[in-house]
Amino acid sequence: MQTIIYILPELFLSIAIMTFLMLGVFIKNSYKLINLLTILSLIFSIVLVLNNRGELVKIFNESYILDDFSAFMKVLTLIFSSFILLSSKDYVKINGIDKIEYPIIILASTLGMMLMISSYDLIVFYLGLELQSLCLYILASFKREDEKSTEAGLKYFVLSALASGLLLYGCSLIYGFTGSTNFEIISKNLNQTNTAAIFGIVFVMVGLAFKVSAVPFHMWTPDVYEGSPTSVTSFFALIPKIAALSVFIRFMYVPFINVMSQWQTIIIFLSIASMILGAVAAIGQNNIKRLMAYSSIGHMGYALAGICTGTNEGIQSTIIYLTIYLVMNLGAFGCIFMMKRENIFYENINDLSGLSKNHPILSFGFLIVLFSLAGIPPLAGFFAKFYVFMAVIESGMYALAIIGLITTVVSAFYYLRIIKIIYFDKSKKPFDDNYDWGLKSTLILSSILILIYFIYPSILTDVISSIAVY
Amino acid sequence: MNFPILSAVTFIPLIGAVFIFINRGAEKIVEKNSKYVAIFSSLANFFLALFIWFSFDTSTADFQFVEERTWINGFINYQLGIDGISILFILLTTFIAPICIFSGISSIKFKIKEFLIAILVMETLMIGVFCSLDLVIFYLFFEAGLIPMFLIIGIWGGPKRVYSAFKFFLFTLLGSVLMLIAIISIYWITGTTDVIKLLDIRIEQQYQYLLWLAFFSSFAVKLPMWPVHTWLPDAHVEAPTAGSVILAAILLKMAGYGFIRFSLGLFPVASDYFTPLIFTLSIIAVIYTSLVALMQDDMKKLIAYSSVAHMGFVTIGIFSLNKQGLEGSIIQMISHGLISAALFLSVGVLYDRYNSRMISSYGGLVNIMPKYAFAFMIFVLAALGLPGTSGFVGEFLVLVGAFQKNILVAVLASLGIILVAAYMLWLYRRVVFGKIGNSEIKEMPDINKTEVYILGSLVFLILFFGVYPQPLFTTVDVSINNLINKYESNILFHLALTKN
């Protein structure tokens, strides 16, 4: 029973989910209370996770791992989930999706992601994945009476089920040819000559690439991002990426490390394709959520570039990239939450026209976030790219680095386009300025973090430098 | 010295910008306060830079006032320091910035607070470029300048401002990302990005060519050199006067400085190898852009093309790789900084009064604005390199340097000087002499007090350095000698390596 201590955060979250469901049933109109309790329980789980860190433990027959890497990723998941709940409060209320299930489902999906992050066994991994996916299907279609939202949910469900099926098939192939579901035993039994198992690896990678929305498995992203309620979109853009990327890293560096030459080319392809598509396809978008979808595809391309190096620096650079990506996207979605006039939310880029005249502070925040997404120094987004390309060039992949940096120039174009609309165009009717404090503080915090990150960049690298997966 | 004086000179404008940013209250008072803060911080910075110049030791080629602090643990240090070359550019920057602020205050009509913030941030970044002694820090300052400049062109610019701002941003960014790859590669090849250490490390010959080209792509866009110069006329024409002044006077010099500090210092063999390329491009720039300038109707565009031609002289001087050439190119950069600023301000004076940059709108100004005509004459003559102005010193030395290296280049470059004289004098004749072509301009007032001070100070410096350039020479002399010695010993070293 000693081991229970190690899964306290997960246990606590599951108990919280059940309790909140009960509470929601028995107390009427309790959305506000439950939302608050959800945020508090997320924050409390951070404490529990941090309490366990520092030692490497494998529990439950070595099917569940707790190390620095999983602790860091879990903390990221929890922090950003609570920020999303905090910043989308107004949106949820105005759009009539303030039902008790909303925060509870987010909590459940967070739990699923924590299981994914810590999984050290194919079955545990798949359980976690399905838990979070099921919650995401519901979230995407949460605005039931809205056609687009329903469509998004259905689309995501169908495609994601297919991807999960492929992934499961891959898992079964791997199990069949290595004789175990445990990551370490797989790693021992897997070698280059085992062609069928290699097929399994490819299937698993397809499933994972779908989850991080890497090209060519990205088709669902723009539609789902556009169709879902914005609060859910912001959740989609941030949290599942943490879990999916950490599983990606874990898979490549633990069970599949011996066949690196096989998966390396695949990831390089995924990375280059995502970077190029993310840069080119976003240029024509007028809906800001679709644009963010393509932008996140591009960003995942850069994150994958770190993974494909096969070095510890590569992993660390990916983690740094992910962390900074989360902060930037939190800021960007914070700005999108503010695009409302008389309680109607706007999503077209042209609605931002001349924002700088009426909302100088908001526009400045948006400016910082966008330049940072474009990767212009001295903002945080530059450092994210810098670390990734450090790792990439260290491994001698100059072609990847050059393509990657040229796509940043292309993608700079569409970020600049938004800045142009905000700063250079004629102003329209002002937006409402009665934001709640949660949204305001989220936006201010993220833009300040992005802006002053350059003063002391060691703060992140010091934490991450202790992380190693193998 | 313990006081971080270089950090101070770099970040004082930024502190001023922060003050302006957090300044809240009634609009008029905020505007007034912002103006005072901007003027005060930029002038204070100028005097601080002067103080640094006076306490600068011209007898040593080592970097002075060096500051070092850990920045990213075990990887990059925040390191600043100056030598005889960079101090001159810092002086130029701190001198031009207050001029831009004065000019902006009188000609910018809206969002003046934001404008001043942008100019001050720009000043910080430009000074940072000249002081930084670490490649990554250098890149940071070099690239970050895109943000305020993009906003300056885009918000306060002319009718085609959006196109120009985008072109400027994307051209420069594309050039620079290749430099970033080169910087990272240098780190993995040598294990450091510290410039002082790198100047003593001899990077292997095989790497030098590609690295040189990567740096070249960035500097060539920024300078700008011939095939990639097309962003410059657009950006200059659309930018507000102060923006054009910053662009022409300082931003272009960052590339020239980069050539001297990094291309020559870090990749001597490649610099030697690619000299013909540079010479060809520079000669094309000098002659072709001068011919283009002859045909312009727009004064700002004409001056923009003349900038490309003048920067062509700078690259010829740098890659002559001898003392006269290098010193000439540095003097040429400083004097072009003053002259182009002065010319753009002169156009700005006219534009503020009559809202037109077309040459054909004016004519016979000497009758209406005699003071202006006098100042403009000095600037035009300086631009074409008349002896007695600072323009002459630089161009002459560059030609002397080029003559030692390659006679053909020197001859062709001198041909360029004739062309410069042609279009500059023609511009002056059409704008200032002749009949008053347009009855509406009859009412234009002569330059006011602020403009007298701004233009007057530029006239003074241009004539002063034309007659007595000695202070500039004493400052750069030792550093240039050291640079050339290092360069030559490096070349010999690599020659010996290839022979074995």
Brief rundown of the structure:
Chain A has 470 residues and is mainly alpha-helical. Chain A has 20 helices and four strands.
Structure report:
The complex is a heterodimer of chains A (470) and B (500). With 470 residues, chain A is mainly alpha-helical. Chain A contains 20 helices and four strands. In chain A, the strands form two sheets. Chain A has a two-stranded antiparallel sheet with strand order 1-2. In chain A, strands 3-4 form a two-stranded antiparallel sheet. In chain A, helix 2 packs antiparallel against helix 3 (68-87), helix 5 packs parallel to helix 11 (230-253) and helix 11 runs parallel beside helix 13 (288-307). The longest helix of chain A is centred in the middle third of the chain and has 32 residues, at 147-178. Chain A is globular. In chain B, helix 9 (205-222) packs parallel to helix 12 (268-294) and helix 14 runs antiparallel to helix 16. The longest helix of chain B is centred in the last third of the chain and has 32 residues, at 323-354. The model of chain B has no long low-confidence stretch (mean pLDDT 88). The chains are: A mainly alpha (470), B mainly alpha (500).
